[in-house]
Amino acid sequence: MDAVWNSVHRERAALIGDLRGLGPHDWDVESACRGWRIRDVVAHLVDTAATTPAAFLTGMVRAGFDFDRQNELGVERYRGKRPEELISLLVQVRGRTSGPPRFMAPLATRLVEEIVHGEDVRRPLGLHKKYPPEDIKTAIKYQVATSARFGGAREKLAGITLVAEDIAWTHGNGSLVSGPALEILMLVCGRSPRSDVVTGPGLVRF
Q1: Given phi > 0 = left and psi -120 to 50 = alpha, else beta, which region is 84?
Q2: 3 CB contacts (<8 Å, ≥6 apart)?
Q3: Based on the number of CB atoms within 10 Å of its own CB, is 10 exposed (0-12), middle (13-18) or buried (19 or more)?
Q4: For the Mycothiol-dependent maleylpyruvate isomerase metal-binding domain, which residue ranges apply (predicted)?
């Protein structure tokens, strides 16, 4: 458990460093998370880092047990904040170890969020980051084993073989999709991978 939280805290700190280098107009660029600007992704990360099991359950009730609506309500809480305020809030929650109830969102979801939303911010702005292979593997393994109902990709991957070439990881049986682990993770999280680095006949399914 401590290893995952250490990784989460490291990713938060790295993103804070990148955010401090952004210009005023960068915050309103469309992120790689459809429908959210850069500032919205940061607001979401602040909200999820600050939440507690009780607050999450209360929020789910208000959202009618709709995960997407619950996320939007969380973003709305911080939507009016200036960039420097969002950075300050992220600094404040950087070391937290709270989150949704584990029966609804296992600890691995915290790492998935930090890596994928970190890329949601970085990619449209031309920023790059390398991640520890074990962190990427933990995130991918969670996503492929989790139902789409809870934000995973299990159903979508029926009949697909995924191969993350740089970490010697394989999953499934069927039409091949192969490429770097980070790009495979982004793909199974509903994002478009960087062009020409993910290949295989199974891509038509995505």
Answers
A1: alpha
A2: none
A3: middle
A4: 9-93
* Selection from 139, 153, 117 nearest residue 36 by Cα: 117
pLDDT in tens, 102-124: 877 899 999 999 999 999 999 99
Specify the DSSP class assigned to residue 191.
-
Give the start-to-end residue ranges of the domains of the chain. Answer: 2-125, 133-205
Tokens of 83: 């960039």
pLDDT greater than 70 at residue 1? no
Q: How many CB atoms lie within 10 A of CB 34?
A: 10
Question: Half-sphere exposure of 196 toward its Cβ, with a 13 Å CA cutoff?
Answer: 0
Alpha carbon distance 35, 170 (integer Å)? 31
Could you give the strand order of the β-sheet that contains 169-172, starting from the edge strand earlier in sequence?
169-172, 160-164, 175-179
Tell me the one-letter amino acid at 105.
A
Look at the domain 2-125 and name its fold.
Four Helix Bundle (Hemerythrin (Met), subunit A) (1.20.120)
Fold of 133-205: Nonspecific Lipid-transfer Protein; Chain A (3.30.1050)
